[in-house]
Amino acid sequence: MCWFFIGMTLLLIASNLVTFFLVSRKTKEMNNVSEEQKFQMAEANLKLLEQSELLEEQKFQMAEANLKLLESNEIIEMERARSEKLLLNILPARVAKELKETGRTEPECFDEVTVYFSDIVGFTDLSSRLEASVLIAELNDIFTAFDKIIQKNSCERIKTIGDAYLCVCGMPVNNPDNALNILNSAVEMMSFLKKRNLSSPLKWEIRAGVHTGKVVGGVVGVEKYIYDVFGDTINTASRMESNSMPMKVNVSEETYKHVRDAFKFTERGFLDVKGKGKIRMYFLDF
To answer: Which residue has the higher pLDDT, 274 or 91?
Structure first.
């Protein structure tokens, strides 16, 4: 009986030892699994952090690219505005708009246009005695003032040729006050020069001629655009100028008829004009 209890006790002890061994092994395995999971989680967090940093870097690169694109758009807009301004410096606004929209512009005939032509008295002699930089600066100052005057009076400068200044009113947009606007401009130009001569060491005088009639206008050139005017009216205005006198505005009878009630004139009678015969002329009084 004693040996039975001893055997049972030993068997119980052996069973407990086996159970303890199995529990210990299982616990160790669970601990090992937990450590592995911790490592995997840590590794996953590290990758997530790296992806987050990469995403932030991509956001920064996108922001930088957008900034460069914005700067490029601003440069393009500035260049576009500059090109349009340059185009308006050489072409009337309506013609420039048509050229931009369609890529071409057709010549037009205008039935009633008043043309102003002037040149500087004694320019050849003065220009031979002045340095080029001084001469250009003087012409630039005078013609810039003329441009502002005619713009205020709804006229259009066509071109300058050396000391000659050519402007019109009534084209490329019709204007019923074309003769009135040109003569108002002519009076202001003369007044500007008189005032300028009071304080300037260089004294400039001009002769001016004005005529009204039909004019053809259109863009000439493909690589370099220029808006030019053609027709007998242009030639007659040039003859009015060559038959004028210093600081006088010589007006044809056609122009006189349009504005005889708005200004005072001195009739000059009929004068011989090369290629034209006799033409009645008037000096504008101002």
So the answer is: 274
